[in-house]
Write a structure and sequence with these properties.
The protein is of the alpha/beta class. It has a single domain (2-231), classed as Rossmann fold (3-Layer(aba) Sandwich), CATH 3.40.50. Helix content is 33%, strand content 22%. It is built from 9 helices and 9 strands. It has helices at 45-53, 94-104, 110-119, 132-145, 162-175, 189-192, 213-218, 223-231, 239-242; strands spanning 2-9, 22-29, 34-38, 64-67, 79-83, 150-154, 181-185, 198-203, 206-212. Strands 5-6-7-3-8-9 form a 6-stranded mixed β-sheet, sandwiched between helices. Strand 6, helix 5 (162-175) and strand 7 form a beta-alpha-beta unit. Helix 2 runs antiparallel to helix 3 (110-119). It is globular. The N and C termini lie far apart (59 Å). GO terms for molecular function: ATP binding; ATP hydrolysis activity. This is ABC-2 type transport system ATP-binding protein. Residues 2-229 form the ABC transporter domain.
Length: 246
């Protein structure tokens, strides 16, 4: 389980920043749940994701995020991060990267990793010489092959064409056993509409909406409707651009 209490984060000084990225929010995510974090650019989605993964440090000592009762830094072997920026080890080839991961992740599935890199047709060259899309595929292969309990994904569809997105969703669905807790940030609402269990909308430093997908669909709504209603999106705001001057 992921438990966050009074989560606060600012890129300025905590004592003086009047518009923090995250403003003392509470969050609880049970084991095995697939959660989507949504919101406008700059809303704090990726910051929240990185805080949960232990990649950012909170500046307020009263804040706390625990994974199974422990800070993320104490359960690194149970965390997989699949982020848009790609591998943190750009000098390694796919084979070398697999060797490295096998040493650090106890449940790393090397056979599955090799199958995924072959499926994605990744060449045996350093990641820094790969295209953006190839780097993303390498991270997908690495992240899923770690077989961790917690999977954090930030814009996993960015830069991928429609067919690759479709393949990715099939691979992701087939890779999960139901015991993993998966948190993802994406703007591709349609791609995850039927995949996630729960949707959270981050808006102005707060968790402005938190709903189970079954309940949302029972109300006859989808993710786009939820997002628009939560952030107060004005469908007709653009009309002012074309209004004739009086």
């Amino acid at each position: 389980m992921i438990e966050g209490k009074q989560i606060f984060f600012t890129y300025g000084f905590a004592e003086t920043d009047k518009n923090p990225v995250l403003n003392y929010v509470d969050l609880q995510i049970p084991d095995g749940q697939i959660v989507g974090l949504f919101g406008e650019n700059g809303a704090g989605k990726s910051t929240l994701l990185r805080l949960m993964a232990g990649l950012l440090v909170q500046k307020d000592r009263g804040c706390q995020i625990l994974l199974d009762g422990k800070p993320a830094t104490q359960v690194r072997g149970e965390i997989a991060c699949i982020f848009e920026e790609g591998t943190f080890l750009p000098d390694l080839t796919p084979k070398q990267y697999g060797d490295f991961l096998a040493d650090f992740f106890p449940k790393f599935d090397r056979a599955y990793y090799d199958k995924l890199t072959a499926f994605f047709k990744l060449e045996e060259k350093a990641a820094k010489h790969m295209s953006r899309g190839q780097k993303a595929k390498l991270e997908i292969a690495a992240g899923l092959a770690k077989r961790t309990k917690y999977i954090f994904m930030d814009e996993p569809f960015l830069g991928k064409d429609a067919l690759t997105r479709q393949d990715f969703m099939k691979i992701l669905s087939g890779s999960l056993t139901g015991e993993e807790t998966l948190i993802l940030v994406t703007h591709e609402l349609e791609s995850v509409e039927t995949f996630i269990d729960r949707a959270i909308v981050v808006h102005k430093g707060k968790l402005a909406a938190d709903v189970e997908m079954d309940d949302l669909h029972h109300e006859g709504k989808n993710l786009m409707v939820l997002l628009k209603e939560t952030v107060g999106y004005d469908e007709n705001a653009y009309r002012d651009l074309f209004a004739e001057e009086e």
